[in-house]
User: What shape does this take?
Amino acid sequence: MAAIPTATQSEQTIPRLADLEPMQTGAQGLFESPVAQAEPGTQKPPTSPEDLDEVTVTGTRSYRRSRSSTATKTDTAILDVPQSIQVIPRQVLEDQRIVRAGDALQNVSGIVNLGSYSGYSDSLLIRGFEAAGFDGSFFRDGVPYFQFDYVETADLERIEVLKGPASVLFGQGQPGGIVNLVSKQPQAKPYYSAALTAGSYSDYRGQLDLSGPLNAGGTLQYRLNAFYQNARSFRDFVRNDRSVLTPALTWQISPQTALRFDSYFINEARTMDDGIPVIGRSVANVPIGRFLHEPFSNYRKDEYGLGYSLDHRFSENWSLRHTARYQNVSPERYYPFSLELNEQTGELSRLAYWAAGNYNRIFANADVVGRFNTGSIAHRLLFGVEYRRGRESPIFKTSELYPSINIFNPVYIDQAYAKTPDFFRDDDATTLAAYIQDQIDLLPNLKLLAGVRFDTYRQSRSENDLNQPRSVFVQTDGAWSPRVGLVWQPAPEVSLYGSYTRSFVPQFGTFRNFNGAAFRPETGTQWEVGVKTELFDKKLSLTLAAYDLRKQNVVTADPTNPLVSIQTGEQTSRGIEFDASGEILPGWNVIASYSLIDAVVSADNSLPVGNTLANVPANTASFWSRYNLQGGDLKGLGFGLGLFYVDSRPGDLLGSFTLDSYVRTDAALYYRPGNWQAALNFRNLFDVRYYTGGFRTGVQPGAPFTVLGTLSMEL
Assistant: This one.
């Protein structure tokens, strides 16, 4: 029987990045300050093409990015980071015509895109462990990003992925890694772009991106992104209607001080969809378009976020960034939830499920960054404090059965039921944290990164069934999260590194031991070694990493009393990853990855030790390439080709069913005469039948052959 979703409180950790990246190329990123043109302590900003990332207001034409702020909260060369960090630039999103972050992340090693959770939310694994917008794995410009549904990419400059535990800067979170969404920033020069897309299954999209100065002096700059999608699906009755608006404003108060306001507004209506259930050891042999809920099944959401960032430079070597953001999400889920399948008759029992409520997040922090020397040793010191609070008041209907449906011969009743709640929950979770980090140049080619963070986390939760007394739970947790890493560069374009990192996740407050005591937080511990290099005059970046990652304090059944639980479980993920991105020849860009992973239950009282973690394939690989003709009468013509491989994998921890391996082939054609571009994107070119992931009562099928046509313009 499937678990009934009750939207657990997910006040995971969320920090904020602060330091500066040279702004000469015009595309300001998440952690890049508009205050100054050079990093603290540098004599002057870099000016040669080799020193600058190839970033423009229209998005980098290259697939390579040489610097990142996600790993350290300071603008740092990726070669200097002793952890695997991968970047998906804007150009990849545009070339692949991607609107969901989950689809974009299939370009990164160690990440498995499980498709959607009940048809409305990205569901991912990073290095074998869960990662979603509601569990603290997603950040937006370094601020925790609580998401109930798909993560939109229309207003993103790039997506950065930091592999492994990240609690030293980002607080409590899953050990596999974090995803940082880097927003498009206001620009000093006028910029205008628009795109229209039409595709299979009545998929229609429109996108607008405007930016430029608002006054003669250019001290006020704006950015406005708007996106709308109306689409049906290869799945019967499934539809999607989504609109996004993201205005932003930057005020350059003085050469030393800048203030940026950002906001976003999202309205969405889509169909809830659990997918296709399993019979025996494989997905039921029914058409992949078969829908097993009711035509009225829906998910609706209104969401908005408001925030600001203040950057101030005290001197050449010392700077401050203060950030605050408020987020409000009001979702509603209404559909007959799949419960259990009679595998002999094909009858699927269902629950009359409804959930609604309001979810609020408040985040504020301050980071001070400074450079100084102790003798011949150079330091870049970061000190930060952070406050966050999450409040939730969801209500649920979970006690009424809905008539069953036969998966082989479905008859839809299409009879709505009353939205009468029978379960109530109120949650309030507060985090206070302080952290310090030092990036130390021991020698010109030997760099040490060390940091530590302390979080104190208090959760107050209450819940009750209809007409029953309310239960109240209060729990306080605290944790130290260290990180240490070393980078040795035997040549300027080669880095050998090793690191140790930890993470923690507090247990849900109402989840208690048999004696009423609170469970300790889950912890993650990782050792990682690797090599990074840049080839072809620094145009192609390569990363090879090996890691041992362990998740501890996993709750498991008590062997002396199966009705209660104890904290003795452990899950282990070991693997090797390879990533490549950049330009091989003029006009020929690639982004590719390979992952070999062994993710297993390493200690448990009820699950067999050695069982592979659910939905984790041993091998995954991706390859995407675009080539543009560089001259002649056909200059402006481009071609894209993509291959995405996922190995077979168990669908649950018991290994009761298996999802088959698959190779999906994508392709694209482009033609760019001047400021215009026409594109045709073909997905699943050979119409392969495949499944991305899910549960025994519902596995998500991949889309069949699909075509998208886009006409875009930028000025």
Notes: The longest strand covers residues 318-342. Residues 6-60 have pLDDT under 50 and may be disordered. The first helix runs from residue 90 to 95.
